[in-house]
């Protein structure tokens, strides 16, 4: 579904998210559209939670987005991705198939997720690669983590709850809960420990 202005009105069609009394981690029942109006969005086959906001110039398809999450401009969220409740996804971010983001996660501007350890356009015989020619590397970002602007999260890693990934970091291995990582490749700088 492409959301476009109504002829002659200059305003996009109005959508309202539904809410249900039995909401779980992702609202039940899921809404069929975000709660706001915005021009130039490609939205198809998305399970929306309650009060989700998706700004203009986004491609969001085949994914799940939890309650009260905000999706900035120029964001793409691919089929198979799952975003939790009360997340903030900043502009120019790419979230691919195989990515699961928990609740209350901050994803800064221009964050890129990678789901293939050995990307290639073709197979050895020269034919274009198909889904059967590569292995999806799932990635998990746990509740309350923050990913700094421009960070790159490689496939097959887990970013722990409450972790902080510094701007521009390249995450190549798991990040412990509460840890702060930065650099290329990302390395631990400190870990927050609960008070005893």
End-to-end CA span: 52 Å
Proportion in helices: under 10%
Order of helices and strands: EEEEEEEEEEEEEEEEEEEEEE
Q: Strand order, biggest sheet?
A: 4-7-10-13-16-19-21-22
Number of strands: 22
Please state the overall shape, judged from the principal axes of the Cα atoms: globular
Largest beta sheet, briefly? 8 strands, mixed
Strand content: 25-35%
| Poorly predicted parts | 1-28
Task: Work out the helix count.
Answer: 0
Q: Radius of gyration in whole Å, from Cα?
A: 18 Å
Average the pLDDT over all residues and give the rounded result: 86
Task: Give the structural class.
Answer: mainly beta
SSE inventory with pairings:
Elements: E1 2-3, E2 41-44, E3 47-48, E4 53-54, E5 58-61, E6 64-65, E7 70-71, E8 76-77, E9 82-83, E10 88-89, E11 94-95, E12 99-101, E13 106-107, E14 112-113, E15 139-141, E16 146-147, E17 152-153, E18 158-159, E19 164-165, E20 170-171, E21 179-182, E22 187-191
